Amino acid sequence: xxxxxxxxxxxxxxxxxxxxxxxxxxxxxxxxxxxxxxxxxxxxxxxxxxxxxxxxxxxxxxxxxxxxxxxxxxxxxxxxxxxxxxxxxxxxxxxxxxxxxxxxxxxxxxxxxxxxxxxxxxxxxxxxxxxxxxxxxxxxxxxxxxxxxxxxxxxxxxxxxxxxxxxxxxxxxxxxxxxxxxxxxxxxxxxxxxxxxxxxxxxxxxxxxxxxxxxxxxxxxxxxxxxxxxxxxxxxxxxxxxxxxxxxxxxxxxxxxxxxxxxxxxxxxx
Length: 270
Fold this sequence. Notes:
Elements: H1 3-15, H2 32-41, H3 46-78, E1 86-92, E2 95-101, H4 104-117, E3 120-127, E4 134-142, E5 147-154, H5 164-184, H6 208-220, H7 225-231, H8 245-269
Antiparallel strand pairs: 1-2, 3-4, 4-5
Helix pairs in contact: 2-3, 6-8
């Protein structure tokens, strides 16, 4: 082979795409599959192969969890506060209810493109056995296979004039919102449109999530809203000072516990 032929051969070899050239054996650390192949070549026993296979599964799971955590951190850094686009305002025999919140469609509109960008997705599972609370599970999954679940349960929504199916549907939607928010660590934006620039901020009041929590407990315990509000010196749940939330929640929890004890005593007597 002449000098010209050798030169042309070298040029052709160097022009090949880098990805088709195998890296030298020392260029990377051996992975679990390399260890298994090496063990098979050396005639390792079945127990050793099983241990190496178990190591491979654990490594795959660790890598998937690592990718999930990285994707969640990146997505969380990009997700903005969710705008409160819905107002709840109705009057029942227990009083007036008024608060603002973000609906599930608004949450999805905000987070879906960002989650997809980082290989994340979510879905819901629902359980509603007879005479049991409605349970919703939000599953957050990553394209590498790792996933995490977050579940919440609650009674059918008896607010307003809903029929039995609507009460269940409303509870499911409510729980979907809160399981998704909890799984992603989302925050709702503050509604400060009514405050002028430079105006002194009013004392902190409970959040919309806390309003919804108290409202749920009030419904569960059949508490009279006007009496409850007078006891805490406010006209609406939204006006309850943040410092009084724990006391209000404990009051309703004690009532719920008493109702449960009374119900248990009635069953024993029968």
